[in-house]
Amino acid sequence: MISQLSWKIGGQQGEGVESTDRIFSTALNRLGYYLYGYRHFSSRIKGGHTNNKIRISTKPIRAISDDLDILVAFDQESIDLNSAELRKGGVIVADAKFNPTIPDGIDARLFAVPITKMAEELGTSLMKNMVASGASWALLGLPLEVFNKAVEEEFGRKGPAIVEKNIEAVKRGAEFVLEQAGGPLDEFKLGEADGEQKLFMIGNEAIGLGSIAAGCRLMSAYPITPASEIMEYLIKKLPKFGGTVVQTEDEIAAVTMAIGANYAGVRTMTASAGPGLSLMMEAIGLAGMTETPLVIVNTQRGGPSTGLPTKQEQSDLNAMVYGTHGEIPKVVIAPASIEDCFYDMIEAFNVSEQYQVPVIVMTDLQLSLGKQSCDPFDYSKVQISRGKLVTDAPALEGPELFKRYELTEDGISPRILPGEKGGLHHVTGVEHDEVGRPSENAMNRQRMMDKRLNKLNDLSIRDAIRVDAPNETPDLLIIGMGSTGGTIDAARTMLGQDGVTSNHITIRQIHPFPTAALTPYLEKAKKVVVIENNATAQLAGQIKMYAGYADKIESLLKYDGNPFLPLEVYKASKELS
Amino acid sequence: MATFKEFRNNVKPNWCPGCGDFSIQAAIQRAAANVGLEPEQLAVISGIGCSGRISGYINAYGLHGIHGRALPIAQGVKLANRELTVIASGGDGDGFAIGMGHTVHAIRRNLNITYIVMDNQIYGLTKGQTSPRSAEGFKTKSTPEGSIESTLSPLEIAMSAGATFVAQSFSSDLKGLTSLIEQGIKHEGFSLINVFSPCVTFNKINTYDWFKENIVSLEQFPDYDPSNRVAAMNRIMETNGMLTGLIYQNTTRKSYEDMISGFKPEGLAKQELAITEEQFNQLVAEFK
């Protein structure tokens, strides 16, 4: 019995790799296994090698694996590109049609299944992915009926005849490979899963779901990889809650429309990635200056410019923290798990209204698109707070206006929505007085700047830093953000086996920087390693600037477009320890 | 019922004496009163430039945003609370240069808002540079030898983008302009009203007298039918865009708000934020 294994399917883009992966993993999720997915894809629709990898485990996992147990290949290219990843004695299930061969030096077992031929016998080569997935499922010795149920759900809309054919394709693939192998492979026999009901989703879906729970009813956005799934999810769901998604002409319209809608009282978000974020910068300043709530999701991908649009990177941190001219209060939150994606959206909307500031939720491609198991979300934890929103202002006398920018002790002023009789005031990106009229008065300017910039002094979001610190004075304190946490933990297990003690901190409140919370851990660590997917050590820069300890901080950086692997983190950390 | 005086506030505009924008401000205030609005039911969203200051000069809700983006902000306001009357306003640079992309798409989208462009054919606040509305050969600080770009025709662009309400006016014609704004507000969809608003400081060519000489009023054509799209386009081209009056109106196309699936007549901002546990469980069930 094994506790985990890794499965990968590869082929040409548009060949059914995605749907096969979806059915395969849905079935595994139903059986209660923990899953962690990784999509390798290119910025094109048809053609080009693509592969999806799933790590399957009986225990929680949050990282891709270093190696691979089963590779399902639709073409020789998939074998050539991915077989080096196979562990010794791993399995390749490939289409007999292209006479698959195992590259030199690779120790693997090959099952050549007449995938295309069987599919064509059933009427269409489109079903070859079902033959292939049926074959690989059968090798695991898992119950076929669970798999067939997932097939039924995938194709149910197309009618019973299509479902039946696909199930038949699965069966033929399974039967063929079992005969060749002499039954399910013992080395792939997974232990029983814990049976707990889990959710299985990508970060972008959790963001969409979290937004609806948070009361978000409008989204204005422009399509971009890897953010589009958020708008695609919300346009399916928001009409049921009275809202909608507007696909705007560009990201400037997306963010300014969101500002207008937030000003008028509806929780509204936009989402984008690097290029779109760059276009939004001026408007983010408007939200900061006019103290209008705003929530932006930035799903980071490889930059700069068009960069690596379908690859992993965490290089927008400085842009999010420092972007927009002038000085405004702004919050940057980095979810580090699917659960965070959900709960952080609720917090982002609350913080944006309580503090009347723009909030950027930063994910990265792997967190946004990697499909993962996660714990069920807790409805009772969904709390909506709108801060100092006034609904019963007394009538105004004569030319009097509502003090929308009243100077208060905490810097946060009462907010009222257009339509309220007692609330007339003006809003402008020009420096303004307490009722929003433009003012160049020097004293007013200073007071208003101080008011805005001091608003966030006491802000601390849920788990501003997430601490796993079993050691009082560890050899290593490893710090990361976003999707890298699971990989870091996997590396720490290996470090522990070598006798290297380590603590792990995930920074979730990127800005304002949680200096006070972090400092004691930096103080006690012998060495600090900051792990991030960028070339210029942006997170480490923030730590050094705000908390210091530059002499013991080292960086582990990766910016080749791929997520860190546990072994990489282990080896580099060990060297630094 | 509010009178136009209730739409006045005590802020003194920073426009030059004689600027066409004063009359446009007055026309908006009169039109708002004439259609029966109270100040809190009106939101004026403006861009940047001399004209952009208008949201601060009207006693109503107002948002003075960033250059070229009055329209997306205004559309956001309307989507959030469709019970509000939303007027977007700005200059020709704001709407036809930096904001042209938004203008075309706001027209296509057809939300029920009114867009008033204060068109002075020049950049005034930055002290006299060429605008997309400047005539060819027009000499400014940025075109010392005269503009060598062709003049943009907002009316033709609006028509070709599928506008449902296209009007043009002259700031001196307070009565006509007020009436057009009232019609624009009542129109169920996006209404574009381009208003010639002379810049007395930097534009010595397109003066009050020049407009009086060159404008062609639709009043001269008693048989003119503003529902005829082809005739409207022809008339715009025949008059080289100098036409004033209600040029085109399509009353059959529904507004964007009326076409959104599940969108209620009640302002979204007034609706419940929280979802029920049952709704929550339904959403979550998809991921099991």
UniProtKB/TrEMBL annotation, chain A:
Provide the protein name: 2-oxoacid:acceptor oxidoreductase subunit alpha
* One Gene Ontology MF term: oxidoreductase activity, acting on the aldehyde or oxo group of donors
Looking up NCBIfam families in the UniProt record yields:
OAFO_sf
Tagged with keyword Oxidoreductase:
yes
- CDD domains for the chain: TPP_PYR_PFOR_IOR-alpha_like
Alphabetical list of Pfam families matching this protein: PFOR_II, POR, POR_N
- Protein keywords: Oxidoreductase
Single biological process term from Gene Ontology: response to oxidative stress
Record has Transmembrane as a keyword: no
Which InterPro entries does this UniProt record tie to the protein?
A: 2-oxoacid/accept_OxRdtase_asu, PFOR_II, Pyruvate:ferred/Flavod_OxRd, Pyrv/ketoisovalerate_OxRed_cat, Pyrv_Fd/Flavodoxin_OxRdtase_N, Pyrv_flavodox_OxRed_cen, THDP-binding, Transketo_C/PFOR_II
Q: Which SUPFAM superfamilies match?
A: Pyruvate-ferredoxin oxidoreductase, PFOR, domain III (SSF53323), Thiamin diphosphate-binding fold (THDP-binding) (SSF52518), TK C-terminal domain-like (SSF52922)
Enumerate the spans annotated as Pyruvate/ketoisovalerate oxidoreductase catalytic domain. 14-175
Instruction: Name the source organism.
Output: Paenibacillus paeoniae
User: What taxonomic lineage is listed for the species of origin?
Assistant: Bacteria, Bacillati, Bacillota, Bacilli, Bacillales
Residues in Pyruvate flavodoxin/ferredoxin oxidoreductase pyrimidine binding domain copies? 210-449
Residue ranges occupied by any Pyruvate:ferredoxin oxidoreductase core domain in the UniProt entry: 475-543
TrEMBL record, chain B:
| Gene Ontology biological process | cellular respiration
The GO terms this record gives for MF are:
iron-sulfur cluster binding; metal ion binding; oxidoreductase activity, acting on the aldehyde or oxo group of donors, iron-sulfur protein as acceptor; thiamine pyrophosphate binding
Recorded hits in Gene3D superfamilies, A to Z, give: 3.40.50.970
Q: Does the keyword Glycosyltransferase apply?
A: no
- Keywords recorded for this protein, A-Z: Iron, Iron-sulfur, Magnesium, Metal-binding, Oxidoreductase, Thiamine pyrophosphate
Q: Which organism is it from?
A: Paenibacillus paeoniae
Q: Which domain of life is it from?
A: Bacteria
The Swiss-Prot or TrEMBL record lists the needed cofactor(s) as: [4Fe-4S] cluster; thiamine diphosphate; Mg(2+)
Give the Thiamine pyrophosphate enzyme TPP-binding domain ranges: 48-195
Name by which UniProt lists this protein: 2-oxoacid:ferredoxin oxidoreductase subunit beta
Matches recorded under NCBIfam families? PorB_KorB (TIGR02177)
Ranges for domain Pyruvate ferredoxin oxidoreductase beta subunit C-terminal come to 199-264
Q: Which CDD domains match?
A: TPP_OGFOR
